[in-house]
Write a structure and sequence with these properties.
Number of strands: 0
Oligomer: single chain
Strand content: under 5%
Structural class: mainly alpha
Amino acid sequence: MADDCPTCRAVEALLVGSRRVPKPVARKIARSSVTREADKAIRRTKTVRKASEYQKKLSKHMKIEREKATKKDGSYRKGMSQAKVMARAHKCVKKEMNKR
């Protein structure tokens, strides 16, 4: 299992590539418990994607269009649907972004 660890392989390649550490020693260091723990920690963390400018504007326009399309009780007005709300919000964002 640990032989397939990408972090272990990367550490071993760096050590062997430096030409200062013999291959058996590099393998032992790369497969150590410290490297394996680091690999587990890396796999646990998830990167958080930053919201794009488009997504922020779409969110704002979705709220505006949803208010226009719904009645006080929360149901859609006659002729409106989620698809139409989304299309109108998308259209507003495209217009806003093209003005610049």
